[in-house]
Amino acid sequence: MNTQTIESNTRLERHPDLVSTQVEGEEIILSIENGQYYGLNDVATRIWELLKTPLAFEELLTQLQSEYDVTPDQCQSDTLTLLNKLQDESLITCA
Q1: Which among 54, 57, 58, 59 could bridge 13 via Cys, Cβ 3.0 to 4.6 Å?
Q2: pLDDT per residue over 69-93, tens digit each?
Q3: 86 burial via Cβ count (<10 Å: 0-12, 13-18, 19+)
Q4: How far, in Å, CA of 11 to CA of 17, rounded?
Q5: Beta-ladder partners of 26
Q6: Strands 11-14, 55-56: parallel, antiparallel or unpaired by DSSP?
Q7: Where are the beta strands (DSSP E) in the chain?
Q8: Considering Cα of 81, then 83, then 84, then 88, what sign does the dihedral take?
């Protein structure tokens, strides 16, 4: 595991070696690198959609807070938890 600390200015984007599609509102991702399938719930799917183009963590939080009824602290905590999991599985890259 090569997890980078995610800070407000960290640029996030999808790993290029993935194939994904939506099935009944949820994202299904296939890692070509390891052959694993991953499923994302509706909020995680929205985050995945937003990461189609590189985005700073702070920009991602701003967008999510405008779309969902969530406190800034809860949004940051939940989003970091998901992003760290995605990073651990090499589904996103951080710079």
Answers
A1: 54
A2: 999 999 999 999 999 999 999 999 9
A3: buried
A4: 18
A5: 23
A6: antiparallel
A7: 11-14, 18-23, 26-31, 37-40, 55-56, 92-94
A8: positive
